[in-house]
# Entry
Amino acid sequence: MSGSRVLVLNSGSSSVKYQLLDMRDGSRLAVGLVERIGESGSRIKHSPAGGESRERNGSVPDHDAALKAMAAELDRDGLGLDSPELAAIGHRVVHGGLRFTEPTVIDDAVLAEIERLIPVAPLHNPANLTGIRTAQTLRPDLPQVAVFDTAFHTTMPESAARYAIDVETADAHRVRRYGFHGTSHAYVSRETARLLGRAPEDVNVIVLHLGNGASASAVRGGRCVDTSMGLTPLEGLVMGTRSGDTDPAVIFHLMRVGEMSADEIDTLLNKRSGLIGLCGDNDMREIRRRVDAGDERARLAFDIYIHRLKKYIGAYYAVLGRVDAVAFTAGVGENSAPVREAALAGLEGLGLAVDGGLNAVRGDGARLISPAGARVAVAVVPTDEEMEIAAQTYALVNDSGNQNLT
Ligand code: AMP
# Structure
C-alpha cells in the first residue's frame, strides 16, 4: 500500500462530518461538514489546511449527494478521492455489539452484522450504514474500515456489563451494557498516561467525556472495566438533552398515568431531558452565564449535573481501588473550569483536588490542573476521535497490506 491519507467519515442521519488526514505526520489536510441532509437549508462547510474556509448552500437530498459534494470540495483542493495517496476510508460506527472488539475491514458480512444491530442502535447504525454504502460506490476498490464506539468497552467484566434482570430474557434480546464514546475513552486514557510519562498498562484513569452527550469510564491499565452508558447512550450522566439514569419505573408510570406512548417517552428522555429539560438550555456556557446572573432554574440544572458526575467519580474510584488520574475531555470537560472545579470539590479526602490557577488557564493541549504533588493527577485532555479513527484505520490496512505481501 503506497498512500498515506485516510478519510474519516462520521455519518449521522442528517449530517456527515469528514476529515482527511495524512498519517505520515498526523496533519489534517481538510475538515468539513455537510448538514441538514434531506432537509431545507442544506449546506456544506469545508476547510482545507492553510486555505480559506468555504461555505455553500444548496440542495443535498441524500447521503449520496452529501458525499459527492464533499468529493467535489476535496477535488477543488487537489485532494480528490481518486488520488492514489488515499489509503483507506475510516467510518465511525456507533454500535458494534459484542462481535466487534476491534476496528474491522468492511465486507458484506460486516455490513450485515451492523445492520443486525439496528434494533439496539436505531438512531445511529442506519445512518452509519448509509455512509459506508455510499462511500463504497465512490471508491469500490478502496479498503473501508469500521471503527466502533462500543469496541473499547468490550473488555468490561460481566459484573459491570450485565443488568440484574432475568438472564434468558436479557440474552434473547441482547440486553446488556455496551457503552459508547469508546474511541474517545481509548484515546484520552492513553494520552493521560502519556501526559504522566507512564505506560498505559501501569495507569488507572477515570475518563469524564463531557460533551453534549456525556459518559464516564473506569480504565484499569489501558482496559475499560466500567462505563456509564449502557444498552444505548441514554444511561448514566446528565447530558445536554438526555436524562441519564432514571428509575425504569418512571417509564411505566408515564405510560400508565401520563398516557404517553413508548415513542413519546423515548423522545422525552433522549431529546427533552437533561440540561435542556431542566432549564431550557443545553449549552454549558449559557447555563453558567445564567447561574452567575442568579437564575435559580439554571443553578438547579447545574447542581443536578454536578451531583450525578460526582456520584460516578466516587463509584469509579471504588471500582478501580487505586486511581492515578481523572481526565476531563470533550466540549464541557475541556472548556468549563466551573464544571471541573465543582465536580471535584470536597473530594480532597480521596486525593482529588483542582488548582484554581491552573484550572482557569485556557490551553489547547493536554495539561495537568491538580496541585503540585497531588496524590491523584487531574488533567484536561482534548479528545480527538477523528485522529484515533484514522490511526486505527491506517494501522489495520497497513497490517493487512503487509500480510498480503508475505
Ligand atoms: P461536544 O459534544 O463535545 O462538541 O460538546 C458540546 C458542548 O460543549 C456544548 O453543548 C457546550 O455545552 C459545551 N461547550 C463548548 N464550549 C464551551 C465553553 N467554552 N465553555 C463551556 N462549555 C462549552
Notes: Residues 47 and 284 are 26 Å apart (CA to CA). Residues 5-148 form a domain with the Nucleotidyltransferase; domain 5 fold (CATH 3.30.420.40).
